[in-house]
């Protein structure tokens, strides 16, 4: 009775592994398709999904992110689904390895995010601030992206309004960017109003992250648990095939 029960358990886990990875494969294919669609024909995507997606797309180039995630999920789904279906030890080990690498990368990223937040702030300030001073007002696309970001997040520059002090925009217009202004215009002739300016985007984004840390943590923990379960199942199937 024991071998048949063990065989039934193996078959059940194998079917679950196939279905789970088939869902991942289909999800990856969908993301990849949407990513390619946005890249090739962003305009019709915007027309269908409206103004919200338009502002989001300006802030972050979502399409390449979707393509990358979709491709990774396709590979994982294929390795897990086909490997389990064909009882292939090689594909199951590849599946385990890919998921393990992603899991380690996520843990490393979480540790870095926790430990080096202040270092990230210093690095971002050192890299982004000179670019803002050089390109804001001179590069149309760069200016639009920053305007959309500042309007959405209700912030000004990376650190504060001084990020725009030597920018082409200020030299040409004689005023700070519109999203920076609180309650009317702020020109160089009105330095006493500078205290009214909104705080920098970096601090605002950090506050947003801290506010949503519980949700983000819960989602991350859920994903990590799924990854651990997937690795455990793939290793179980691998070991069972090894004993055959």
UniProtKB/TrEMBL annotation:
It is found in: Endomembrane system; Membrane. It comes from the Eukaryota. Its main location: membrane. The chain crosses the membrane at residues 12-38, 58-79, 91-116, 215-239. The keyword Ligase does not apply. Keywords: Glycoprotein, Membrane, Transmembrane, Transmembrane helix. GO terms for cellular component: endomembrane system; plasma membrane. It is a multi-pass membrane protein. Pfam families: Tetraspanin. Interacts with SLC19A2. Interacts with NTRK1/TRKA. Structural component of specialized membrane microdomains known as tetraspanin-enriched microdomains (TERMs), which act as platforms for receptor clustering and signaling. Participates thereby in diverse biological functions such as cell signal transduction, adhesion, migration and protein trafficking. Regulates neuronal differentiation in response to NGF by facilitating NGF-mediated activation of NTRK1/TRKA receptor tyrosine kinase and subsequent downstream signaling pathways. Plays a role in the inhibition of TNFalpha-induced apoptosis. Belongs to the tetraspanin (TM4SF) family. PANTHER family: TETRASPANIN, TETRASPANIN-1. This is Tetraspanin. The gene is Tspan1.
